[in-house]
Amino acid sequence: MELEENNNAQPPYSAQHPWLLICHGDVMHKQTFFSVSENRYYMKSIPELKEKTLSAYADEWLVLQSINSNDCYLWNLISNEKIQLPPFPAKCDILSYLLSAPPHDSECQVIFQIKETETTLDEDEHENSDEHDNSDENSDGDENSDEDGDADSINEDENDDDDEDLLTFYFCKPGYNEEFHKQNVQSIIGDSRLGIWTVFKKFFYILIGMQNILTCLDIDNDSGRITATPMADGSPDLSKSYHAFYKDYLIQSSSNNMLLYVHLIGNGREFEMPYHFQVFQFDFIRGRWIKAESIGEIAIFISFPLKTGTACSTKDTNLNKECIYFTYGRHLYIYNWIISTTG
């Protein structure tokens, strides 16, 4: 595919169709915006995106995270407005996050999946005992202190009950809450095995457990509690395949109000090249997944090998309907889903 470069024109950020954004440079200070519809790319250097990762958005609002810390905030790419989010524990791991709506919307919520340990949760108690710790260091010396630390690490590895990873939801209303609400995942759903998730009609939907049960997470910001409601009895009926490599995607299509489950099957020398897709649509009335025979005049976009994706209308565009666009390495591929499933 021959691309046309345009370094002078500003990318139309408010366009209806998704952009392929590639951040590069020593500190990720350069950005390449590729418009699939225009077959053109734009080279930019936007200071606000320097050393940031982006995994969630709502309209023109982006959730940005520093690559050097857990500092997160909302940024409006049109007005340059910024809304700082409450701080996270210093040693927790941010796994993924979603934004339900723009901040001016009354249903706006941001939610994070956080992996933390009991040691992290008790960090404040350890900080309060600095005086006791200092006296121990003076009596034992630095060398003995390191040995004690190594012994503790060994014991932690041998006994998960003493210091196990805990999956926690952190959530708040941006610009309203000064601290995150926190709720242990297992206390909500009775299972810590969470799969992919997405936003659909301003609600959070997530796949849970070994059966990938579609579940709606209803957040009550006033009480700081989450209610989990199972939406289906089972998972999509996937065709059996001898290929061990696959990835799943939960994607909203706002143009035709569909919630889609996309199953990618890999092939190739290392079984990592996408070669086949199965698509299911969720029937909210019957509470089950239905294998899609057609996705209509939309195109599905998948960020591979990540587990994120989106969909948009192909009307009045140069995009191909009934197709799945995905990246592999430095190339953009188009998978004609209808021909592949009927041929």
TrEMBL record:
Protein name: KIB1-4 beta-propeller domain-containing protein
One Pfam family linked to the record: Beta-prop_KIB1-4
InterPro entries: KIB1-4_b-propeller (IPR005174)
Organism in which the protein naturally occurs: Solanum tuberosum (Potato)
Region (Disordered), start-end ranges: 120-162
Residue span, KIB1-4 beta-propeller domain: 33-112, 169-335
